[in-house]
Amino acid sequence: MHLISITGIFENTFKNTWKWIHIFLPIGLVVSLVSLFLNSMFFNQALAANATFGDGLASFWQSFGLMMLLGVTMYGLQLSLYAAVLERRGDWMNFGLLRFAKRIVFVFIGVLIYYLIYLLGAMLLLIPGLMAAILLSMMPMLILLDGSNPFRAVQESFDLVWGNAWMFLGVNLIFIVAIVAISLVPGFFIGFGETVGMASGSIAPDFGAWQTYLYLVLNGVVISLYSVFFLETFYDLKRVREEKRKLVEEDGRE
């Protein structure tokens, strides 16, 4: 059985994040800053919706829609730029921006399909929902980087991850633990309640305090690591698929 290389994924993730940190970190900082504002806006609208069911609820859904729109845009743009750097594109910024601009509509459709299938699985049982999330996790990369249409990306993501699903889940859990540990570092300086509060949006960031900037920097590092991790996993899954394809071709010639 052809399996993804756990050590290879981890090694490439940390090596390439460090190598390109001067590019990745500023992008991660922007994403981190936008995330703070989006989370704070969404949390406040959720409180308003709870207090006033009528207009507050409508405002809540407007904020939710805006948050999803900006969140997917930032995520897709970040992935496209990071991938352009990892693929050693000469003019990585223009290449990444142009690629994202060409695929943005398909990315939104893909995210919508992903959540519909995920929610359907989650409503049935927890395990089907979890498996759906794992098997469809490569959809954004397939749409954005390989040019697949959203519907074909569903099947391609299943094909990529199938056979490596449990290993993929294990790698993700290990990496998430490492990332959570990094994310909690600001808690030693500003308190864990404040750190969680800023991340959830329940506490507005104080830009007059140096601890807020520490949170932003570390969160930017976390965002960069996790994005590079997903890209390296995607590249390794494609490597496994190519090895399988060559093996099938060799068996056919024999």
Low-pLDDT residue intervals, each spanning 5 or more residues? none
Number of DSSP helical runs: 11
Q: What's the average pLDDT?
A: 76
Distance between the termini: 20 Å
Strands, count: 0
The major pleated sheet works out as:
none
C-alpha-based Rg, rounded: 20 Å
How would you describe the shape? globular
Order of helices and strands: HHHHHHHHHHH
Proportion of residues in helical segments: over 70%
User: How much of the polypeptide forms β-strand, as a percent range?
Assistant: under 5%
The helix/strand class is: mainly alpha
Structure explained in plain terms:
The chain has 11 helices and no strands.
Keywords:
254 residues, mainly alpha, 11 helices, 85% helix, globular
Q: In a few lines, what is going on in this structure?
A:
Helix content is 85%, strand content 0%.
Please write out the topology.
Elements lengths: L5 H14 L1 H31 L3 H32 L5 H33 L1 H10 L3 H7 L4 H12 L3 H19 L3 H4 L1 H9 L9 H44 L1
